[in-house]
Write a structure and sequence with these properties.
alpha/beta; 463 residues; 41% helix; seven-stranded mixed sheet; four-stranded parallel sheet; Rossmann fold; binds pyridoxal-5'-phosphate; 2 domains; single chain; 17% strand
Length: 463
């Protein structure tokens, strides 16, 4: 039985797959709250590189990957596909479990698949610096790495609670030459406003995004870079699914289920989009299911409301059509750092609304139980984010054991947990609490949004 399948460098995909032409309905456009109309591309050009905006709206199904980007990808791509033999034997399941391991990249997750591409296009367009936010530190590390490779400066606004909890993520970014600022900070109006009202504010991704965007639009030669949610970001991640498909083909396998965790939706989309293409456009033989996993402490897809909301707390970003728990969401102190974002990618939300993907939420104690089982059977210590998916995979494999079903399950192990030892420590000491976000807080936040923009309900795009 093959335990690990590795491809050669020449098998790194030459094109990314863009889902936009294959969505079941046109994607609702980002809305400018001032004009109540779709945002003008000129306004977005102040924030993002031109080529990335072109990709954001492109209806081309296949977008060529520049050779310079493929050359950098070759540092860690193609990533290995593993068969979880140890876990299967431990569970005594008839299911076959495969995982695509993205933790082999230098920053330790899937995030450099887009960070490298974004740094490349910004360099080509003559930018000198990129700004961004980071929660748990994975995205900031990836962008620091990408900028370093293409000689760009990099400023990372890191959510203050993570900055204090994960000092080595900060050091990793600094080693690659980035400047790391705990957010909320005194650097920006958005940060100062938060600190004026709440000097001890622990920060959130929403606040850090506000700071990074403000920094970019107020400085020449500087653009902003986002690590999830947007179409072009998810598209850059499809190298994962395209490689996985080839690897499974070599084993004469095709998944019944493709599962991944969702913070903003990039790792999961990067894995499942190419299988969605098979299912919807090429009428694949198998009716593959797509399963998104998320924390009960930030239940965007399972309990959020589908509406237009800002991507940040200071309301600097356009309004995006998505499931949201409210842009004033302050993340609870759980350990799935990268999954604590109030919204999700509009493409993913549209697919969820149309019933093409299913979402399940888990509490943090049960995900660390799954993570520990995985570490003790497969050896790899997973990051807390993909451990949500491991919880699902274990439950599904046990269901197969009861029913005798021989499902083939593919999931995305999108990062290792080497910087998350504090969380493992708390779990092993029995200190982690189950935490569920109160539904009342979601309703209150959305009511507030509707009082601010009563016309949202009238927009034609949500129907
Ligand atoms: C390892 C890992 N997985 C998943 C995520 C969630 O983001 P996304 O849903 O865009 O993959 C993050 C975000 O920081 C992460 O670091």
């Amino acid at each position: 039985m093959e335990r690990k399948l590795v491809l050669g460098d020449d098998e790194i995909p030459k094109e990314w797959y863009n889902i936009l032409p294959d969505l079941p309905k046109p994607l609702p456009p980002p809305i400018d709250p001032e004009t109540r109309s779709p945002v003008s591309p000129a306004k977005l050009e102040r924030v993002f590189a031109k080529e990335l905006l072109k990709q954001e709206m492109s209806m081309e199904r296949w977008i060529p990957i520049p050779e310079e980007v493929r050359e950098v990808y070759a540092l860690w791509r193609p990533t290995p596909l593993y068969r979880a033999i140890g876990l299967e034997r431990y569970l005594k399941t008839p299911a076959k479990i495969y995982y695509k391991f993205e933790g082999v990249s230098p920053p330790g997750s899937h995030k450099p698949n887009t960070a490298v591409a974004q740094a490349y296009y910004n360099m080509k367009e003559g930018q000198e610096r990129l700004t961004t936010e980071t929660g748990a530190g994975q995205w900031g590390s990836a962008l620091a790495f990408g900028c370093m490779l293409f000689n760009l400066k990099c400023t990372v606004y890191m959510v203050k609670v993570s900055y204090n909890q994960k000092p080595y993520r900060k050091t990793m970014m600094q080693t690659w030459g980035a400047e790391v600022i705990p957010s909320p900070s005194e650097r920006t109006n958005s940060g100062r406003n938060v600190l004026k009202n709440d000097p001890k504010n622990p920060g959130s991704l929403g606040i850090a995004i506000s700071e990074a965007v403000e920094d970019a639009v107020t400085h020449e030669g500087t653009k902003y870079s986002l690590g999830s949610v947007l179409n072009h970001v998810l598209m850059h991640q499809t190298v994962q699914g395209l490689e996985a498909k080839k690897q499974l083909e070599m084993l004469d396998e095709y998944p019944d289920v493709v599962a991944g965790c969702v913070g903003g939706g990039s790792s999961f989309s990067g894995l499942f989009w190419p299988f969605y293409y098979d299912k919807v456009m090429r009428k694949a033989e198998k009716d593959t299911e797509f399963i998104a996993t998320e924390p009960m402490a930030c239940p965007t897809l399972t309990k959020g409301i589908y509406t237009y909301d800002h991507g940040d707390t200071a309301r600097l970003t356009p309004l995006l059509a998505m499931y949201t728990v409210g842009s004033d969401f302050i993340p609870p102190p759980i350990h799935a750092g990268g999954l604590r974002y109030h919204g999700d990618a509009p493409t993913l939300c549209l697919l969820a609304k149309e019933g093409l993907i299913k979402a399940i939420a888990y509490d943090q104690v049960s995900i660390f139980e799954a993570a520990t089982t995985f570490a003790r059977t497969e050896g790899i210590i997973p990051a807390p984010e993909p451990s949500h998916t491991i919880r699902y995979v274990i439950d599904e494999a046990l269901k197969c054991k009861r029913t005798g079903e021989k499902k083939t399950i593919l999931f995305n192990l999108c990062g290792h947990g080497h910087f998350d030892m504090h969380a493992y420590d708390e779990f092993l000491a029995g200190k982690l609490l189950k935490w569920e976000y109160p539904e009342g807080a979601i309703k209150d936040s959305i009511e507030k949004l509707k009082r601010l923009y009563p016309w949202i309900e009238e927009l034609p795009y949500l129907r």
